[in-house]
Amino acid sequence: MPFLFDIKRYSINDGPGVRVTLFFKGCPLSCRWCHNPEGLSCTVQKLYNHSKCIGCGSCVAACPEGALRLTQTHGVVTDAQSCTLLGQCAEVCPTKAIEMSGRNYLEEEIMNIVLKETHIMDSSGGGVTFSGGEPLIYPKELKSLLVRCGNEGIHRAVDTSGHVKKGVIEEVLPHTDLFLYDLKLMDTSLHREWTGVGNELILNNLRFIADSGKEYHVRIPLIEGVNADEDNVLSTIQFLNGLKRKPTVVGILPYHDIASMKYQKLGRAYDSRGMNEPSKEKQLHVCSLFEENGYNAVIGG
Amino acid sequence: MIEEVKTRKRVPQRKAYKEGNFYEHDTSRPGMNERIRALREESVNTPASLSIERALIQTEFYKKNEGRYSIPVMRALNFMEICEKKSIYIGENELIVGERGEKPKAVYTFPELTCHSVEDLHVLNTREQQRYLVSEKDIETYRTEVIPFWEGRTMRDLIFSRVPEEWEAAYEAGLFTEFMEQRAPGHTCMDGKIYRKGMLDFKREIEEEIAKLDYFNDPEAFDKEEQLRGMAISCDAIIRLAERHAEKAEELASREKNPVRVKELKTIAEVCRHVPAHAPRTFHEAIQMYWFVHLGVITELNGWDAFNPGNFDQHLEPFYENELKKGTLTREQAKELLCCFWIKVNNQPAPPKVGVTASESGTYNDFTNINIGGVRPDGSDGVSDVSYLMLEVIEELHILQPGNSVHISSVTPNRFLHAAIKVIRQGHGYPSLFNPDVYIQQMLRSGKSLQDAREGGCSGCIEVGAFGKEAYLLTGYLNVPKVLEVTLCNGVNPVTGKRVGIETGDPSNFTTYQELYQAFHTQLKHIIDLKIKVNHVIDQMYARYSPATFLSVLMDDCIRKGRDYYNGGPRYNTTYIQCTGLGTVTDSLSSLKKHVFEEGSVSMEQMLHALSVNFEGEEVLRQRVLNHTPFFGNDDDEADDIAVKVYNDLFDLIDGRPNGKEGGKYHLNMLSTTCHNYFGSVMGATPNGRLAGKAISDGTSPSHGSDTCGPTAVIRSLGKLDQVKSGGTLLNLRFLPSLLRRDEDVAKLGTLIRSYFAQGGHHVQFNVVDTATLIAARENPEEYRDLLVRVAGYSDYFNDIHDNLKQEIIDRTENVSF
Questions:
Q1: What is the pLDDT of residues A126-172, one digit of tens each?
Q2: B745 at interface of A, judged by CB pairs closer than 8 A
Q3: Confidence of residue B2 (pLDDT cuts 50, 70, 90)
Q4: How many other C-beta atoms lie within 10 A of the C-beta of residue A108?
Q5: CA distance A147 to A111
Q6: Counting CB atoms within 10 angstroms of each CB, which of A59, A281, B226, B732 has the fewest?
Q7: Cα dihedral B33→B38→B41→B47 (10° resolution)
């Protein structure tokens, strides 16, 4: 069964038209800037939002393992050792300060939600976007959903980091209408430093997709201090220039310090060192570099 | 509402007019040229004031003439007297002329309907919000001349002397409001006839009808003759009013030094000598024709929801095209005339209520709602260049009045929809959007011909009607959540402890949700019956004592029938009861169903106790309800099925009941205007977690902040109501300007609107929120749980983002929106 952490309707920034976006949980990369940190781990996680907590203690009483305690300064504190992630605390929490992230969805359940949006997907030229996390780490479940959507005539976009075995791409490619493909850094050692993995597999897979003739967009999270320098941008362009089919759109996604709240909920520290928001001028400059090379570059999207 | 206009720091770059966002020139102030800027400035900066002129003319006239004429003739002569004696105002820069009072923003009183007390006038003169200036001298004159004559004999006095105690108890509890105790029943729009016929043509028709009267066989022949005579006098009255404007313009021209203005004044005089006596020949005359008609209607009486020109773009289009072809009018001149008209409407604040308190604010808006786009009588697309001109005027002037709406049928081109969205994203909250494909069905369902339905549209807020042919009177709002509150106290108002309904059983003894719902249904029927019974009495009082002889000239088929607008004269006669708070009542029932009856996690006694103490010490229960109950607006059948059931039951209890006027019927309406605030203020806490005194949900929108699954889920929920059964529903959606920044986003919002309309949606309006709202959202997060903001590459709920980022977005938005 597909393991998701969210389904978003009226999604207008993940491909053409109005879409339903499915967020698969789990990712082979661990980008420092990741703005969906709950999508990193492949397991169920507990999220705790201290500001929503009214300190009623319902969760403490409900935990069969006695893993929770109420504190003055930090609200509810969970002993990770004894917590078995049963989620009873989330069930009884009146304010939803505690929520469990990630669960198995029946394919039927997903399709029911997706099909509710048939009218607006059809009329806007939208569809379903499979995102995450990394949807391609669930090839069997993903393929099955892609086929289902295909049978319903729904446009399918796969939003991927590309860091998977080529065989997986091969398997889902015939059932995908559009890839939204992330390109972060062209230097593999820097790529490893910032995301935890090198970029060889990623670049090879993109070459494979481009060779196949399948439509794809490239998405670049533009981060001052990481990849916004002209060197990296030019080598990205150079790489794209060498591909058989060009991306329909190059989306520049300016970095933003948006995710710190989510990190807090996960009980993790957000390490923003060395990363900054690119200036408006920089964003436009990067855009124009792509445009000069004949690419349809947009900020956002 | 929108009167305060922020100064633009920077002139936005605009595209060609057909693509929307129209400023092309560097304009530091809104308005296309010096004239329009000056007129606009005057209109926005002049404070609203009360003029006692009409009251004095009328009191004098009644003192002299009462008892000498039949009522319709007396009313018509009274109207004639006002047209003959009122002061005539022609402002320095004006092209379209005529004010209701002595000057812009001066509003008349109508003491024959409701007579302000000295205390009322003092409050109006001094309160902070929605103030109406009135001098001590005028108050004194009112005290000695006007009040003594009308005291005890106004329509309001007559109504309150006749209502049963039971009605009064329910009324005082805030179970419903009664429109007709404050203003005359109104709600009608103009169709195209005044662009084809002048008042002299109408007068001829009236005379023909008088000649045809059959005194041998028709027992009503005398009544009809008096009514028709009144109508003929009213035609003369409005012609006289126009002539007096012509005279004034000529007089001003004789003293004017500037040759350009002399020419303008001479044109004004020529126009006013031609219309409304004759059908208009030019674009200028067509607008002035409507404006005299409008002034006549709002001077004769003060009917609710002012009056409006209906499908104004379609009416003006032939004049525009013809003159453009002949070279007697340019596009710019046409736009300037439209601006002048727009400002004229803004110069007419709504007449203030009587019995006011200092805190009761109300609005200056008199709900004139200009319909733009839509379909033509043959079903084809109604959009023309005049429609785009109007969008330009709306965007440039951004003034409070007139309200306006775009009508998006399946035949309406996307470029027009997108142009309208680009005006909406300026954040003034208009135009609102309507779906002719649904409201035409609504009219066919309630018995209109296809042609009449297509010539109709929406007025006031969202009310459907056949323009120029229908009296569709609003009788007041029904507080549906309050009916549930009273049901939960077995017929007693928990706020006062007073009995206001019938006994439907002690809810603690109910063992199933069905029993509770049945009790609610019984109470609902009782309250609706009570309201309808009294409505009949009030309706007949107006028909007999306060005929609207001028308005009757304008509405088919009053002349043919020889009957008044209030007395079944129009071709169609509808009475609407506006049901408010569908979201609140649905969520409250859903909460009781789930937590009390299905899960049993809280007993009825516990819930009732929590409500009685306004959830004090019961925050855990309240949070549980707020966060773990299926609420309306999330595309969740658990809640939506309840909404559909309540909606259908309201329909069954109201629709089709006779209103005593020649086959006229009651119909369901689902608007709240601002009444959801008043209704909330008279209520304790509700089982959906809403605290005492807080507003209930508006129109058919979900409860504030309870829709958390995005706009597509909201429209799906709303789409489950068969909206064709109502005479209008209302949906408010809030967006941040940054969600509409790119053209692509505009197109996506366009598909959202089209999708809602395809699912049977009647109306939607967007609040592209401003900084003030964002700050309020930060301070009261619970009430803004549905506020969607574009954060960076994705969108999120404002509530769910970090405090610092909230501040950042607050800072950021200002740049995006202004």
A1: 999 999 999 999 999 999 999 999 999 999 999 999 999 999 999 99
A2: yes
A3: very low
A4: 8
A5: 12
A6: A281
A7: -160
C-alpha distances in Å from residue B720, one per residue of B362, B633, B640:
33, 10, 7
Vertex B30 angle, CA B28 and B34, to 5°: 85
List beta partners, residue B463: B459
Mapped onto helix, strand or coil, the DSSP state of residue A249 is: strand
User: Do A119 and B619 lie within an 8 Å CB cutoff?
Assistant: no
pLDDT at B1 over 50: no
What pLDDT band is residue B677 in, cutting at 50, 70 and 90?
Answer: confident
Tell me if residue B473 falls in helix, strand or coil.
strand
What ipTM describes this predicted complex? 0.90
Handedness of CA B482, B485, B489, B490 (dihedral sign): positive
The contacts found for B806-809 with CB under 8 angstroms, 24 or more apart, are: B806/B774, B806/B778, B807/B778, B809/B736, B809/B774
* Residue-level pLDDT at B182: 84
Cβ(B487)–Cβ(B157) under 8 Å?
A: no
Q: Which residues of A touch B623 (CB under 8 A)?
A: 54, 56, 94-95
Q: How would you class A25 by CB atoms within 10 Å of its CB: exposed for 0-12, middle for 13-18, buried for 19 or more?
A: buried
Per-residue burial over B306-320, b if 16 or more Cβ lie within 10 Å, else e, is bbbbbbbbbbbbbbb
Supply B651's token pair: 């329909």
Segment B477-521, tens digit of pLDDT: 999 999 999 999 999 999 999 999 999 999 999 999 999 999 999
Indicate the SS3 state at residue A26: coil
- The H or E element spanning position B795 is strand B795-797
Which residue reads 């899960």 in tokens?
B599
3-state secondary structure of A75: strand
Whether residues A300 and B620 touch (CB distance < 8 A) is answered with no
CB contact under 8 A, B751 and A13: no
Reading the block at residue B304, the tokens are 């609710």
In terms of residues, how long is chain A?
301
Quote the CA–CA distance of A111 and A115 in Å, as a whole number: 6
Q: Which active-site residues of B does the annotation give?
A: 461, 463
Q: How far apart are CA B381 and CA B742, in angstroms?
A: 27
Least CB–CB distance from B624: residue in A10, A94, A255: A94
What is the phi/psi pair of residue A67, to 5°? -90, -5
Three-class DSSP category at A241: helix
The larger pLDDT score, comparing residue B183 to residue B441, is at B441
Alpha helices in B50-130 (DSSP H): 53-65, 71-85, 118-126
